[in-house]
């Protein structure tokens, strides 16, 4: 993967290239960025940049690549296909055989396919890609032993060996097996840890890495990425960018699933609440609980987006720009019948429900409880969406 194929982060790309150019590269880096920030694609592109030989075919000769890998040499072609012998990968896995601890090497074929189809995916996407269902992924002690062995060997083709460990948050106390290797690595060895939550990383590993903070994308970045990847109209790209809140993974999911159905589902939900129709309420909760965790989060985030648009338009004294007329009508009705305190309470409850969905709470119970809370919040605003 080339830097140019990674959405945004031009300043970080330039700084990484300058670290190499001026020989200031640390042997252990931590790419820390929130979900959908492109931290993993950036790490893959940097690994290709480090192993690029230009057109010389000689790893000992500096590449004339400047701020980008050449993309043409044999090393680049192998790195792009994730088969370079000097770029090693470690990531959360599930047992493949009951009798043996799982290791990343068992899943390299699946890993390459996953990166090809979900470069901005999260660990949930990866485990579902493996068919893990409710199984938890881990980076095991046996994996750490294999990493120690791999990196103790000489490089095969390039001037350096690279380990990309994705989601070191899944590395338990067995990660202490890597401490000596990280602190005193063999010559020309580079560790790239790619993480989302530094609080879940072993402090002993965290303290041995140089932090490269990857920020969430801006709305402009996501709009540009959607336009480039899907060629969608600017208004649709702007709408999805607003909902995804800097998460390009979320933006791609919204692009795939669309958001018009979410608005209809919200209207139905609020009408059920307003009419106090218990049978319809139970039916709606049953249907919502069957959506699946990721779609439930998308739905609730879209609702938050609409309420946030209402808050924003109330402050600026005008309707939200760039939205379909039916959505603008929805937002205006929210403003007409909900004051600021009501909208803030709704957003808090929606965010709280997303928090529990991410932690695998029972969906039916969550939506039942949320419906009751929204009923209390809007009971004095009964005309919100009656059409």
Q: How is the main sheet built?
A: 5 strands, parallel
The CATH superfamily label of the largest domain reads: P-loop containing nucleotide triphosphate hydrolases
Strand content: 5-15%
- What share of residues is helical? 40-55%
Mean pLDDT: 84
Q: Compute the gyration radius: what is it?
A: 24 Å
Task: Decide which structural class fits the backbone.
Answer: alpha/beta
Going by CATH, the architecture of the largest domain would be 3-Layer(aba) Sandwich
What does the overall shape look like?
elongated
What name does the CATH topology of the largest domain carry? Rossmann fold
Stretches where pLDDT falls below 50 for ≥5 residues? 59-64, 382-387
How many structural domains in the coordinates?
Answer: 2
Quaternary structure: single chain
Spatial strand order of the main sheet:
2-3-4-1-5
Q: First CA to last CA: what distance?
A: 50 Å
> Count of DSSP helices?
17
The CATH C-level class name of the largest domain: Alpha Beta
Number of strands: 5
Order of helical and strand elements: HEHHEHHHEHEHEHHHHHHHHH
Please describe what this structure looks like:
With 387 residues, this protein is α/β, with parallel strands linked by helices. The chain folds into two domains: 3-213, Rossmann fold, CATH 3.40.50; 259-378, Zinc Finger, Delta Prime, domain 3, CATH 1.20.272. The chain contains 17 helices and five strands. It has helices spanning 10-21, 39-51, 74-80, 108-117, 123-129, 141-152, 179-183, 203-206, 219-230, 234-244, 248-257, 260-275, 278-289, 293-316, 325-337, 340-357, 363-378, and strands at 28-32, 87-90, 161-166, 189-195, 210-213. A five-stranded parallel sheet has the order 2-3-4-1-5, with helices on both faces. The longest helix has 24 residues, at 293-316. The protein is elongated, with a radius of gyration of 24 Å.
